[in-house]
Amino acid sequence: MKSLTPLQLEHFLAHLAERYELRVPILLPDGTRTIGSPDDGPLALLGGAVPGKPTAAFFPQQETIFTAIHGRLSQAPPPPKPLFILGFTATDLECLRFIDRFFADGIRDDLYFRLRQGAVVAGISGYCGAKGTLLPPAAGNCDLELFLAGDTWLVIPYSGTGTELAKELPNAATPEEAELFKCSIPTVPDGGETLLQAASALLCADRVPDSFWEELGERCIACTGCNLACPTCTCFGVQDWRSSTGVERSRTWDSCQLDGFMREASGHNPLGSEALRSRRRIHHKLAADPRKWGEISCFRCGRCDAACPTGIGMMAVAADLVARFG
Ligand code: SF4
Ligand code: SF4
User: Fold this and answer.
1) How do residues 244-262 score in pLDDT, each as one tens digit?
2) Which of 33, 149, 190, 254 is the right S-S partner for 235, CB 3.0 to 4.6 Å?
3) Ligand 2 neighbourhood includes 216 CB (under 6 angstroms)
């Protein structure tokens, strides 16, 4: 484990930029934080998880699949340098681990791995949450982790690449700093995890009546904020754009809260009501994914609860389910 002053960390990042395409938490002109290029805003490591979908680094909102210009097919080349992405919290890293499995399953998703393959992922934790609160360490699931202890950043490597990068740093962490990091690793499931498991058990046992989903559907205004913010939402639509010279095929994030999400060419829509679409959003993560993947695919990042204007994000719905039917 190594330690860095904030200035040394800036130098470390500048040094990394020679070998990697850097993506770090930055402050945008509108005052919000996102994970982006240091050229687009000043470094903003404090304040907790960024509000947007962090997995957009590998699964962007819109990307070109291929172009066919004058009959010549071409695909976007991989980036000139591999990505180095800093800013995933422990829960974000769980989400990334989950979608890595998703995109590698069956037919491997070339577009996703074009960016993901060879990327270095750095977690962020320590006393850099909102108003200096503790962001729990991930203690894995990434190449290396930066943990803010007082005014020092501890660098904890996990993978071979992380270890190589940390080797270049001069100062070893003190035993007290190492102990602070160790003591911050959660040892018991948090309340949110227990709540989701209870809600999942209710759904898997089919103990939730249709009337609940009708009520929920009434409250959804189909703004899609929940899906757009969610790091484990992976649905997308495909479009062809024609020009005088050819065609570009691209993909764009989709939302299961939209009427056209599953509508078939015949007009039949298996998710033809807000109630069914709202049920699907919750059921997919808490019941269908546990059956397919052996785990709930919500990692309690809280983004959908923060984004939903009508208060029916995942944690709010889970709490309601458990209170009413548990
Ligand atoms: S809390 Fe919401 S946004 Fe976060 S992983 Fe769960 S469903 Fe997705
Ligand atoms: S954020 Fe809330 S209102 Fe908007 S689509 Fe999602 S559930 Fe519906």
Assistant:
1) 889 999 999 999 999 999 9
2) 254
3) no
